[in-house]
Write a sequence for this structure.
């Protein structure tokens, strides 16, 4: 087999691996032998930590960092809004079916999610929004199905109040969880 010639460039290529602790034993021995024979390689080996630290620093401008962070926040907020809207629509839509009992889990979840989704006082509007949406949805569906507008109105009011109360319970649960997680975070800091 032909013998390979180990040049100083090969040693330079192996120095980062050796310094990072991921090089094989043979590579470590090769670098050690190379830096013993070449003073310039030895100096580069000793200066590697300083050079690598300087090259690892990101030169991203702060404006770009803020754009990335705001894009991530916007994406996260939009996902939460989609979950809130879809959950509300599903909960209201299954009212007249056998799956109606899932609303005892779904509506409080929507209320709790609102606590973590909204930063301002908008989170407290969620039960009111659910009340209004449920009332309009149920009233429209009941009038189409039933002949009696009075019965449809009573049913729509009943389901609207129940779902609004369930989402308000979820808001309270979310506030308690946020308080508990905040206390836990303060405890460890």
């Amino acid at each position: 087999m032909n013998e390979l010639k180990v040049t100083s460039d090969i040693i330079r290529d192996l120095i980062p691996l050796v310094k990072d602790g991921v090089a094989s034993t043979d590579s470590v021995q090769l670098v050690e032998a190379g830096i013993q024979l070449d003073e310039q390689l030895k100096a580069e080996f000793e200066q590697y930590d300083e050079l690598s630290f300087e090259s690892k620093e990101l030169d991203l401008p702060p404006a770009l960092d803020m754009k990335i962070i705001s894009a991530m926040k916007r994406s996260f907020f939009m996902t939460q809004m989609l979950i809130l809207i879809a959950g509300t629509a599903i909960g209201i839509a299954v009212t007249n079916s056998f799956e109606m009992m899932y609303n005892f889990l779904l509506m409080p979840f929507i209320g709790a999610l609102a606590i973590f989704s909204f930063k301002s006082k908008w989170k407290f509007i969620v039960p009111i929004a659910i009340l209004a949406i449920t009332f309009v949805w149920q009233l429209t569906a009941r009038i189409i199905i039933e002949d009696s507008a009075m019965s449809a109105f009573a049913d729509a009011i009943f389901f609207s109040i129940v779902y609004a109360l369930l989402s308000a319970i979820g808001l309270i649960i979310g506030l308690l969880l946020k308080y508990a997680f905040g206390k836990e975070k303060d405890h460890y800091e």
